[in-house]
Structures are given as C-alpha cells and as structure tokens.
C-alpha cells in the first residue's frame, strides 16, 4: 500500500511538472533582450507579464517544444539593435528580420547548428 502511494505521488508530481512547464528561461531572457533593444517594441505585441513565449500569446515566435525555433518579424518597421547573444537561442532554425530598421552590429550566429534560414535584407546593420 505504501509503495503504491509513493508511485501515485510521483505520478502526480510529474503531471504537475508537465502542466506548468514553460519556455526555456534562457530563451525567454534572449527574447526579452531582443524586445529591450527596440525603440518600438510595442509593434511586437508581446505580452508584458508573460514569461512563456512558447505559450499561446506571443506573436512572431515559433517553438519546438519549449525552445524557440523561429523569430519572424519581417516588414514590421522595427527599429533598434539586436542582442549580441542571440546565438544563445541554440535551437533557432529560422530567423526572419528582413525589411525593418535594425541598426548596429550583426550578432554572431556561431554555434547555431540547427539554423536553416536567415533573412536580414533591407535593414541598416553596420
Ligand atoms: C510591408 O508592409 C506594408 C505595410 O503593412 C505593406 O503595405 C507592404 O506590402 C509590405 N511589403 C512587403 C514587401 O511585404
């Protein structure tokens, strides 16, 4: 009986873990930095009090599991600089930044082994 009880508790705990699991915290931090580098972040319409970009309410972000796999912000008139640690989004597959007003240095894409496409055209990078 005791053993059975223990198993039940473990099963419940793992269920709770699945239900409450959210976007990788480091991926979230990079997206925060992305937003923070913009002069007009409101255009993204990312929710202010939500730390789960892989949840339902974040536009322009697409995930694979709990990792950010795509950022698609083309032609949104975004103005600003990119976080230089963008390559910490290590599961990034597609990056669509074209037709905005990004300035400053292009971040390194080093180590992004799953990257399939990157569109940077029509911006004002250094
Ligand atoms: C960019 O967005 C503007 C405004 O929404 C739209 O009129 C235009 O056709 C878009 N251009 C491209 C190339 O997608």
TrEMBL record:
Q: Which residues form the Leucine-rich repeat-containing N-terminal plant-type domain?
A: 25-64
Is Transmembrane helix set as a keyword in this record?
yes
Q: Where is the signal peptide?
A: 1-21
What are the record keywords, sorted?
Glycoprotein, Leucine-rich repeat, Membrane, Receptor, Repeat, Signal, Transmembrane, Transmembrane helix
Q: Which domain of life is it from?
A: Eukaryota
Query: What Gene Ontology cellular-component terms does the record carry?
Result: membrane
Q: How does it sit in the membrane?
A: Single-pass membrane protein
- Pfam family example for this protein? LRRNT_2
Location within or outside the cell: Membrane
Designated name of the protein? Leucine-rich repeat-containing N-terminal plant-type domain-containing protein
Native organism? Salix udensis
Q: What is the lineage of its organism?
A: Eukaryota, Viridiplantae, Streptophyta, Embryophyta, Tracheophyta
């Amino acid at each position: 009986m005791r053993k059975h009880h223990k198993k039940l508790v473990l099963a419940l705990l793992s269920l709770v873990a699945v239900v409450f699991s959210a976007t990788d915290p480091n991926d979230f931090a990079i997206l925060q930095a992305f937003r923070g580098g913009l002069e007009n972040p409101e255009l993204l319409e990312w929710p202010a009090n939500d730390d789960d970009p892989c949840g339902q309410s974040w536009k322009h972000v697409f995930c694979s599991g709990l990792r950010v796999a795509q950022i698609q912000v083309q032609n949104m008139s975004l103005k600003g600089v990119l976080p230089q640690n963008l390559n910490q989004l290590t599961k990034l597959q597609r990056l669509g930044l074209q037709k905005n007003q990004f300035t400053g240095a292009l971040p390194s894409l080093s180590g992004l082994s799953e990257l399939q496409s990157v569109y940077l055209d029509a911006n004002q990078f250094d």
